[in-house]
Design brief:
By secondary structure, the chain is α/β, with parallel strands linked by helices. It has 15 helices and 16 strands. The strands form 3 sheets. It has a 7-stranded mixed β-sheet, with helices on both faces. α3 packs antiparallel against α6 and α9 crosses α10. The longest helix is centred in the first third of the chain and has 27 residues. The model has no long low-confidence stretch (mean pLDDT 94).
Length: 483
Amino acid sequence: MANNLYSDVYDQQEIEWLDQVFVQQKKVSQYEYFPDALTRINDIQLLKNALLNFESQLLKAMKKDFGHRSEDDAKFGDILTTVLSAKYAIKHIKRWMKPSKRHVGVLFQPAKAQVFYQPLGVIGIITPWNYPVFLALGPLITALSAGNRAIIKMSEYTPATNKVMKELIGSVFSIDKVAVVDGGAEVAAHFSSLKFDHLIFTGSTAVGRKVMSSAAKNLTPVTLELGGKSPVLIGENIDVSLAAERFILAKTLNAGQTCVAPDYVLCPEEKIPQLVNSLHKQFNQMYAEVFDNVDYSAIINDAQFNRLQGLLTDAQEKGAKIYPLKVEDNAQYHDMSKRKIPLTLITAPEDEMLVMQEEIFGPLLPIVGYKNFQEAIGYINERSKPLALYLMSFDKNIQQQVIKQTKAGGVCINDAALHVAQDDLPFGGVGDSGMGHYHGQEGFLALSKAKPIFTRSRISFSSMVFPPYGKKIHHLIYKLFIK
């Protein structure tokens, strides 16, 4: 990873300030138990308005942090998604908050049962660098929907964006409701050690384990949105060029620096040459050039750039074939000065190659051939459960086979990554790709305490079953209900 962009003095100041803010939020949450629906809706509306007011500043800041970030990548991946999430929450908060009626068995009548959804308190949100706005404000919208307070820890690799985010949040909320901290790894470690009422982390599996371990010391529940190797499975009967068209944007958006970007492709062996040609044609239609193209984003920093180059070198040395998909110069794989790498295909990959072991998180795409479809399903199931699985097939039977025979955090059929943008779908991983959800109603439930409430009226027959036992009523109950 890159060196810490913040000084030790700054980190210590942020830690001290974080502790002060945490105490304030905890204290206020102890007496403001249940913000009403209008308060929550107003908070999210104000947040959405502030985002729109700060949009230009955020786009410039993200471009600065990345060296170059496509403005449209940022608008689609950070601004649009956040605005849609806010609108969806505003529309549904009242319904989510409504206590749900539950059944009361005949033995316990007359009475009523319901579940009341109460805020947890103070939510910690740890944000990664790849979508610093959406992955900070998306969880925040969920936290506010559930009536909570929140502190956001921004990534150390997006200092310019962090500065704007602090201004944005400060323009809307007092620090005892929502606050933003930045700083390096020491601040992040301290953040995850605080006794939050819930902690949301988005990032790598390796760091996710550390966050969960730290949270466990306080019995803090966690939502972990991790990554992994999300496959594209191309069916045997779909047109390969159409399949390529359906998943290529998910791989090239933000130069592949997306947790749900396709990580490798499973393709019928005999169709691999056609797939390579189709991806080459499609990529060059989308990006006539790469290195000087404002539509194509850069790799975030030198460390990530060098890591990706290392994956390519390792694969090539172990026998893989490398195909950089760009029209300027097929012999040149990258531009170090601009930190740009064209979409690069890797054929004949082997399991021992690093590119098949690590989450790629960049514009490299291994293509694995399969002989029959069941073999392809087995290939997926033999590996860690992915955050997303993308099936390219219009065959309903094949679709059901994949849905039932594989496990993944989410599935897209005949598209890729767009399931994340569906506000009424839960988003989250399974196994090594994460746990829990924070989108839509499932997110509201995750950040609420579902409090069961059982209520008796003035009439009660409970005394009839009081000891001493052995009365006729006891025998009758046993006879009627224990069978």
